[in-house]
């Protein structure tokens, strides 16, 4: 009996070993990560591009759009090191406050991660899937291929001009709309990214989910398609195709990894309010409502999402939006730790409705919660008018 039991355990161990070997072989078949790159000679196309991007990175570091929080930047930097350990010393992450869903990586190792992407990522694995995609472009030197292509089209001067303009704005990533990767390059980067996600022991099924969420958000927009809503996605594969392919890769790799959601939500919590404000200012009300409805299902900082939904409804101001907004504001208060702007928003609606007492009460609560608010003088003037 002992002998048979030992045989049984040996078979299980052998089966697990073969299973792991099969998964590892699948990952290697999809992509094998190259070694670190040597800095190219300045006289070469690639060397010139690196040098130019070094100068733009210097400008970017001074940009007011770049988050100066060292701890959070190091955290995101650490994710890139998990994804591509050998290339870790060559990758430098910059967190950029921009409400669009995007990240990009230059051939010299400069990576930008935009706040609009981080707002939409439900967990660490989803962000890592996009970072892995950008690292894929870097590993395959896709930017260099594009550079040679535009040189052959006598458009190099325009290319340089775009870098200069964007450097001045502190948003190098805007180049994506004018200097896009081919659809083949985008598909390659998706494949590489999910292999990196697998190698870092993340849940590879999360890669498809972030694109599905973006698709649902975009469907609410006037054009219903990210490729039409933003030039950054014009050369990307259609989202439904991308999602299906990523799901196929995830099934092949069969990774039982983690998504590390709790740490992600805790790490991003200090920046959430600013990111929500930026999204509200984007003015894409239908898309933002879909986004905020999804995000309000999170248990962390729930009042923030409820407030954000209320703000969108108040600003859109269609049909019964004012009443719907009041309901969302009240839900934010019930959730606890609501933003001070919750009371300002309610005050503005009550003022519009002609309810002076309620408006005054809400405005006073707002000033009590945020006495140093930038619009405090204006709100005080509203209170004075309500007293007359």
Textual characterization of the structure:
The chain has 388 residues and is mainly alpha-helical. The chain has two domains: 41-261, no CATH class; 271-387, Tetratricopeptide repeat domain (Serine Threonine Protein Phosphatase 5, Tetratricopeptide repeat, Alpha Horseshoe), CATH 1.25.40. It has 19 helices and three strands. It has helices at 2-30, 45-61, 70-83, 115-120, 124-139, 142-152, 156-169, 183-199, 206-219, 226-229, 239-253, 261-268, 272-281, 285-295, 302-316, 321-335, 341-353, 356-369, 376-387; strands spanning 92-96, 103-105, 110-114. Strands 1-3-2 form a three-stranded mixed β-sheet, with helices on both faces. Strand 2 and strand 3 form a beta hairpin. Helix 5 (124-139) packs across helix 8 (183-199), helix 15 packs parallel to helix 17 and helix 16 (321-335) packs antiparallel against helix 17. The termini are far apart. Mean pLDDT is 86; it is low at 1-21 and 160-178.
Quick tags:
mainly alpha; 2 domains; 19 helices; 388 residues; disordered N terminus; 3-stranded mixed beta sheet
Topology of helices and strands:
Elements: H1 2-30, H2 45-61, H3 70-83, E1 92-96, E2 103-105, E3 110-114, H4 115-120, H5 124-139, H6 142-152, H7 156-169, H8 183-199, H9 206-219, H10 226-229, H11 239-253, H12 261-268, H13 272-281, H14 285-295, H15 302-316, H16 321-335, H17 341-353, H18 356-369, H19 376-387
Parallel strand pairs: 1-3
Antiparallel strand pairs: 2-3
Helix pairs in contact: 2-7, 5-8, 5-9, 8-11, 9-11, 9-14, 13-15, 14-15, 15-16, 15-17, 16-17, 17-18, 18-19
């Amino acid at each position: 009996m002992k002998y048979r039991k030992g045989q049984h355990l040996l078979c299980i161990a052998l089966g697990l070993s073969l299973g792991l070997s099969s998964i590892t072989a699948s990952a290697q078949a999809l992509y094998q990560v190259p070694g670190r790159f040597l800095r190219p000679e300045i006289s070469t196309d690639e060397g010139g591009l690196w040098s130019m991007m070094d100068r733009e990175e210097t400008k970017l570091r001074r940009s007011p759009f770049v988050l100066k929080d060292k701890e959070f930047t190091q955290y995101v930097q650490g994710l890139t090191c998990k994804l591509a350990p050998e290339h870790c010393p060559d990758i430098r992450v910059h967190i950029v406050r921009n409400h669009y869903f995007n990240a990009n990586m230059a051939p010299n190792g400069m990576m930008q991660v935009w706040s609009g992407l981080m707002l939409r990522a439900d967990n660490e694995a989803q962000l890592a899937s996009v970072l892995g995609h950008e690292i894929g472009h870097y590993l395959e030197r896709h930017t260099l291929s594009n550079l040679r292509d535009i040189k052959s089209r006598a458009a190099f001067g325009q290319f340089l001009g775009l870098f200069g303009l964007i450097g001045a704005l502190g948003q190098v990533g805007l180049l994506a709309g004018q200097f896009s990767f081919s659809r083949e390059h985008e598909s390659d980067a998706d494949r590489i990214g999910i292999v990196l996600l697998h190698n870092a022991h993340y849940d590879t099924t999360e890669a498809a989910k972030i694109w599905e969420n973006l698709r649902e958000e975009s469907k609410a927009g006037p054009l219903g398609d990210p490729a039409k809503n933003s030039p950054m996605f014009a050369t990307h594969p259609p989202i439904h195709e991308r999602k299906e392919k990523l799901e196929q890769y995830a099934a092949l790799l069969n990774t039982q990894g983690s998504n590390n959601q709790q740490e992600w939500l805790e790490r991003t919590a200090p920046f959430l309010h600013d990111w929500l404000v930026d999204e509200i200012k984007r003015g894409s009300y239908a898309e933002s409502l879909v986004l905020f409805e999804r995000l309000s299902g999170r248990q962390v900082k729930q009042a923030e999402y409820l407030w954000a939904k209320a703000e969108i409804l108040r600003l859109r101001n269609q049909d019964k939006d004012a009443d719907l907004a009041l309901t969302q504001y009240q839900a934010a208060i019930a959730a606890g730790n609501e933003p001070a702007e919750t009371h300002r928003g309610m005050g503005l609606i009550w003022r519009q409705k002609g309810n002076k007492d309620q408006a005054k009460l809400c405005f006073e609560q707002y000033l009590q919660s945020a006495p140093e608010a930038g619009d405090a003088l204006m709100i005080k003037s509203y209170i004075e008018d309500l007293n007359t």
